[in-house]
Q: What sequence folds into this?
């Protein structure tokens, strides 16, 4: 991966018009987050989502991502770049993990790999499962 590619990627996240800088753009929209309530609405609308859980298998087994009617696939972040062919490019992809740290890293990697439809679940699986208990 070239430095120029990373530079171009970060330039897309221009936060000068964000709320903390006095503008009206909310940072989650720029960075590509979706809040649990927003994801729930997307699922209820029947959007053809692909949930990419980037936690380890043992974490996903102990606390699975609970959602009916959506495809959920566990690909640990350490395997992500070797398994890109398992992730659809023609559907919205929502990356999830426990707290959104690994999911954010996964989104960045997918963006750089040419995916343009990736968002991160803000708050992670635990917050999602609490909302949907």
A:
């Amino acid at each position: 991966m070239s430095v120029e590619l990373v530079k171009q990627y970060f330039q897309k996240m221009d936060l000068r018009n964000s709320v903390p800088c006095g503008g009206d753009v909310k940072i989650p929209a720029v960075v590509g987050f979706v809040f649990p309530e927003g994801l729930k609405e997307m699922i209820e609308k029947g959007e053809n989502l692909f949930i990419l859980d980037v936690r380890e298998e043992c974490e996903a087994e102990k606390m699975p991502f609970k959602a009916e009617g959506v495809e959920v696939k566990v690909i640990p972040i350490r395997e992500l770049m070797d398994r890109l062919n398992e992730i659809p490019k023609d559907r919205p992809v929502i990356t999830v993990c426990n707290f959104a740290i690994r999911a954010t890293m996964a989104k960045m990697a997918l963006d750089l790999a040419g995916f343009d439809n990736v968002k991160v679940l803000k708050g992670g699986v635990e917050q999602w499962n609490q909302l949907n208990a």
